[in-house]
Amino acid sequence: MKKGFLTAVIAAGMMAVALTGCGSKKTTNNDNGTTGDSAAKGTTASSQASADLSGTISLAGSTSMEKLCEAMSESFMAKYPGVTVTVEYTGSGAGLESLAAGSVDIGDASRHLKDDETASGSVENVVALDGIAVITDKSNTVADLSSEDLAKIYTGEITNWKDLGGNDEAIVVLGREAGSGTRDAFEELLDVKDSCTYAQELDSTGAVLAKVGSTTGAIGYVSLDVVDDTVNAVSVDGVEPTEEQILAGKYKLSRPFVMATKGEISEQNDLVKAWFDYIKSDEGKEVIKAVGLIIPE
Q1: Beta carbons within 8 Å of 248's beta carbon, 6+ residues apart
Q2: Quick check: 18 pLDDT over 80?
Q3: Which end of the chain, N or C, is more open, meaning fewer C-beta atoms within 10 Å of its C-beta?
């Protein structure tokens, strides 16, 4: 994550909050019944709380959530200078295993939790929504795939782009490694779990993006927020991967970004509670939007 991007994210969040607070200064009753002077005292108390909060919050899990976690961590630590946030990108499954073992405070997963994970006491906290984009190299002329044909590509039933109206060239099927939340979600949504035939399995979202962009005939899947002009993002069943389509429930390949806790948020320590409070705040929402994700309704 480049420092410039993260700085821009923080600036965007702070600007949004500043604009929200602009207006004439009045000593009138607020919604909670306090006066302007009382509100000012509340702000002072809040600032003192920020100064008093210290310690470390540890997260581990999904590589697809790296952009969100890095931006949120830097923004949070700017607000709470006494707090250190550490994040390891080990994959969704490994992150949830670390949470269950008690070695981290939060387990990041780019999918819904499984029954055995919730049975161990992990609680699913959805913080954002993400679409999984199907991508091809720039020279590919196929702009839309049915979910049925997409499934056949990944199970090896369709092996040449000419069978889909494209060029006469072999399809190079790329995907994520076993244990990846992106892979789990993709395969489950297409009902091809454990049936896929990959030419290569890559260990990060960025690696898939780069490999597809540099490989003629390649197809892969990545988090929607990382798609750039080095690849083509195809529509699925005639529906483009956009925020509007995901919120409307029309785009098939969408998933939650989860920050799981061992037990409910209300049962966590003050640092973890402050982390989730920040994510739900106006500043936190600005960070989510700035990295290209969708705020769940």
Answers
A1: none
A2: no
A3: C
Determine the Cα angle at 208 with ends 202 and 209, to 5°.
165
Query: Which one-letter DSSP state was computed for residue 238?
Result: T
Q: How far is CA 128 from CA 196, 212, 219, 279, 291, in A?
A: 28, 26, 26, 10, 11
Average pLDDT of 195-211? 96
Count of CB atoms situated within 10 Å of the CB of 84: 14
Rounded to whole angstroms, the Cα distance separating 66 from 61 reads 9
The burial of 229, by beta-carbon neighbours within 10 Å (0-12 exposed, 13-18 middle, 19 or more buried), is given as exposed
Dihedral angle, C-alpha 109, 110, 112, 117, nearest 10 °:
-20
d(CA 22, CA 6) in angstroms, rounded, equals 25
Question: Where are any strands of DSSP class E within 138-204?
Answer: 144-145, 172-176, 200-202
Residue 107: Cβ-neighbour burial (10 angstroms; 0-12, 13-18, 19+): buried
**Which pLDDT value is given to residue 1?**
40
- pLDDT, one tens digit per residue, over 162-174 is 999 999 999 999 9
- What integer pLDDT is reported at residue 202 of this predicted model? 97
Q: How many CA atoms lie within 13 A of 70 on its CB side?
A: 16
3-state secondary structure of 209: helix
Judge if pTM exceeds 0.90.
no
